[in-house]
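Late entry, evening session. Most of the bench is empty. Finally got around to the prediction I had been postponing all week. Sequence below, unchanged from the version circulated by S.P.
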Amino acid sequence: MRASTRVHRPLALLCGLTLLGAAGTAGARDLPEIVRNGTLRVGILRDTPRLNAVRGGGRTGLEVDLIGRFARKLGVKVAWVRTSPATFGQDLRSSRIDLLLPQNETLTLGAEAGLTSTNPYYCSGAVILSRGAAVRNSTGLLGKRIAVQPGKAYFDYLKRLALDKSSNVQQDAASTVLTLIYKTADVAIVDKLAALEATFVYPKAGLKMSYPLWDTRFGAVVRLEDGGLRKAFNKTLQTLVESGAYDKLSGAYFPQNVRCSTY
């Protein structure tokens, strides 16, 4: 993995962005209403370093930059609204939020009627993280103590390889990485973005990352009837990719481009 320097977007890009804790107004809003109101309400489930997190009194990260570009196209400001896996569906239907940035590989829309996704605005996936010698694929897991971050897809993967009895599911991605740092596991299976963050946090640990075991595509979640909002988001994303602006934004935060291969 090539080295990278941490670069954070200027706080000027965050001008006008606020975090809302209170519930929004009831009633669904379409794109014209969002533009008339002058505010795009964006739901987030959690803070994720280099993707979307508070730093220096404002929000910074790839998502912040992408949404900032989208909001400027619409001529509106952004309000960041905290939501949860249990309530995001109702928050979208009531227009407490207009779209959701998932940031969660376990989030599914199967039980949420009337919702859909935009085109993916970044791609990640599970990787094998190790210290010293790199473990490139599943054959390198044999005989290893395996730590795995929570998530059905992660455990099912090990179960298919008949390695579930060699694995230990941790509380979250960060604690999974710590098993490597404290040498209580030989390898860790975590999300790619969590692995990249670990290389920043523990530069002397000699962490090595495999190629993705599978891809996970992250698109913004919107109401099914909000076709105008979805189309506008997709068009802005496509323009950023084709102009090369996306690659520059991604490179400001990650040592590897997180753009999806479909673009």
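Two things to note before I forget:
Helices lie at 31-37, 62-74, 88-93, 152-160, 173-181, 192-201, 227-243, 245-251.
The first strand starts at residue 18 and ends at 20.
Will write this up properly tomorrow.
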